[in-house]
Amino acid sequence: MPHFSTRSLERLTSCHPDLQVVFQEVIKDCDCTILEGFRSRKAQNNAYTAGRSKLQFPQSKHNQSPSLAVDVAPYPIDWQDIHGFYYFGGLVLGTALNLYKNGQISHRLRWGGDWDQDHDVRDQSFNDLVHFELYKEA
Is a pLDDT exceeding 90 seen at residue 65? Predict the structure, then answer.
């Protein structure tokens, strides 16, 4: 049965409890690794400079404590397997939606592969396929 490494668990604990619930459920069905939860000023600005983020500190949801965003990849990581990232994104979103509808988490989840949440992954101007963040419906 898949389980998180000590490093992944440490990163996950820097995240909002809803994100922790979602990924503790996801790991039961799909091995994955937590790449990043909370991001410091330096780490956020480095991600921005490197083009991995469109936001400077403190605008990212990674910059709040606990973090309202988490970067997670299917494990083992194969950065060339784009289809695997899309599959994983769908699995995570489905898991989160089920938890939300059952009252186990209080936020919906948005994924960096479908920012506008229109279920069309081809219309994105910036893909961040490892990024998942909490939001409240208006």
Answer: yes
